[in-house]
Amino acid sequence: MTQSSGTPMTQQHRADHLRRRLNELYPETLLPLAHRDAYTLLVAVLLSAQCTDVRVNQVTPALFALANNPQDMMKVAVDAIQAIIRPCGLALRKAAAISALSKILVEQHGGLVPADFAALEALPGVGHKTASVVMSQAFGVPAFPVDTHIHRLATRWQLTSGKNVGQTERDLKRLFPRNSWNRLHLQIIHYGRQHCSARGCDGTRCMLCRELTPECRIAEK
Question: Core-most of 108, 110, 159, 175, by most CB within 10 Å?
């Protein structure tokens, strides 16, 4: 695909085309992790590290039946948390983090999840990506959480140099309007899972790869 003038697409033109296409495909977006508030979202995102959202959603009902707020969770033994979340992997580390962050929320934040990047990232087991998801989806603060999947797709679509997730996040924030970040993050996740997975597309098969990748556009001429 080229611009109407026949000249090659720039990085910004690819970004604009991508946003239009994703808005057509996903006019409504839902976070794939089941949750009911900022705390349960925080825990679910923490559990999703190196684990599928499907598996997390299978595990969290039992965990939240045991405790669904920091006041109750901090009283649960780490071993009991670990036993429930074992299918998610890294169970001991994640259980210890859930227990510790729950105690910190109660003792330092009045039992509430803070709507603050620095405060979130100071919690055990919470990195920048997790904090970004919570800030964007629980509090509506513009953020662009970049995990390995979004990093892979952004690199494949030549929206970033692909050096690391930090650089990818900066590049995506530069290319897309701030008011689109929260929605676009979810749209890219949905599209990647449905059409452009690591195994299901080699960068030349799905609709967006064919439209955004110069090599594919040249081959189709």
Answer: 159
